[in-house]
Design brief:
Layout lengths: L2 H16 L9 H15 L4 E7 L6 E6 L2 H13 L3 H8 L3 E3 L5 H5 L1 H9 L4 E9 L2 E10 L7 H25 L7 H6 L2 H16 L3 H14 L4 H10 L10
Antiparallel strand pairs: 1-2, 1-5, 3-4, 4-5
Length: 246
């Protein structure tokens, strides 16, 4: 890395190190939550969340967040199938929405309305990438509309770079049999359930895979539940989708 990059990453890591650890779990996701809290505090922002996604963006999971509201807003994107995290991952570029009341409402109608209900007025997403690899996105939530400064964008991108490194470290640990290797699998275990539920709904209703996912998301949204919880109920047999159900 160039010296200025080294210094920038070192400063960001120091802010993460200085963040209190008592409220966070041990292991890589404990540090990821420290990262979210540190960025939220120093940017400043209403909150920060980090999520990982699959290639088709049908499912994903929030692995860390600075607070409960940020976690809910990150997770809601997977229920609705829309939002800054998904767009940043898909395009591999930062996504800036400084006005959720205006342009954001047409960009992500369901998500923007839910974010506004939580007092969020602007959201910015930074993809987690290295080379051609991508893993997810880091979302920044703010209560005031308006763009980020250049300095804030640079700081958020640095934290996204560190977050990607933490995910890669976790993945590397999973190949060594370390006790930390289960963390990522546990955080994203419901991916398989989402795919299983999608297939079951496709067969039950005689619809396409895409339509099956739409049905699952519609049911989750209509009942104020997460996509993961609805998928689990379908797989376990406690929920049977019908033509008239969401």
């Amino acid at each position: 890395m160039p010296p200025e990059t080294d210094a920038r990453v070192a400063r960001a890591n120091q802010l993460i190190d200085d963040e209190p650890t008592a409220a966070h779990p041990r292991g890589p996701f404990g540090r990821m939550e420290q990262l979210c809290s540190a960025l939220s505090r120093h940017l400043p922002a209403r909150g920060v969340g980090v999520s990982v996604l699959t290639e088709d963006t049908y499912s994903g999971g929030t692995v860390a967040a600075s607070d409960a509201v940020s976690r809910r807003l990150d997770e809601l994107q997977f229920t609705l199938g829309e939002g800054p995290c998904i767009d940043a991952y898909a395009t591999r570029r930062p996504v800036f929405e400084p006005d959720l009341f205006g342009h954001g409402s047409s960009r992500w109608p369901g998500y923007a309305a839910a974010a506004q209900d939580e007092g969020v007025r602007a959201v910015f997403a930074f993809p987690l990438t290295i080379g051609t690899a991508r893993a997810g996105a880091l979302d920044v939530y703010r209560t005031q509309p308006g763009p980020l400064t250049k300095g804030a964008v640079s700081q958020a991108m640095t934290f996204a770079e560190i977050a990607m490194g933490l995910l890669l470290d976790t993945q590397a640990e999973s190949t060594t049999g370390s006790e930390r290797s289960a963390d990522l699998d546990d955080a994203l275990a419901y991916r398989l359930e989402v795919y299983q539920a999608q297939g079951m709904v496709m067969v039950d209703l005689g619809v396409s895979l895409d339509e099956a996912m739409v049905r699952l998301r519609a049911h989750a949204y209509a009942n104020d539940r997460s996509l993961a919880d609805v998928a689990r109920d379908v797989v376990q047999g406690s929920l049977r989708m019908s033509q008239d159900n969401p």
